[in-house]
Amino acid sequence: MSPATIENPTSHRKLTHAGLLEEVRRRFGDATDRWAFRCPNCDDVASIADWRQALTDHPTLRRGERVDNPGDLIGQECLGRILGALDGPQNEWEGRGCDWTAYGLFRGPWEVIMGGQDGLPERSAWSFPLADGDDPATAIHFYNRDRFGEIEVEDTHVVKVLDRAAATVRLLRIPDHCACGARRGTPIAVTEADAEGRAYDAQRWTNPCGHQDDAEDLLIKAGLRSGRN
User: Fold this and answer.
1) Which residues pair with 111 in a beta bridge?
2) pTM to 2 decimal places
């Protein structure tokens, strides 16, 4: 990570909407699934892919209409609000993220200037800060990349797998169905430890067909390990 991307996630910063998009692409490239923001309260890093999966698993209404576009909420709210952090006292929430918003009592901390051109009035939109582009949590790796062209993106989902050797969590995009054709189980949040005993937020799932996914095998298929693909 270059020094230019090291910043205090709670520091105020003011930039135009065009400037924000330019920085997003500089940090993450044009693959929108990798675009990610960091919650200034709990430090959870949530990408477009995370939000798309959360909105699929937890249908959400705004003004009486279902929200399907992750761009409507990412950077504005912590992912925990969709996952269940609003269902009870925040100090009892044990899932991912929290109940923070960019438009709450403590705004931002980034201020994005909208309008100001073509006669439109200038206004501020508050935002979470971008995540670091080199953060492993924002890098999505494709399961079995050589065969991925045979699978529609809509028939896949992103899972969080602990890479113990690298001491980090990897985001892997895997098919919704097992190699046998049966649908994979639903991932649930778990806490896993590496060889040094450090804890990480990851996911596990149980496939109803009985064919279980081994983390090491998934990492091999994603090209993050040497081994037969």
Assistant:
1) 14, 126
2) 0.59
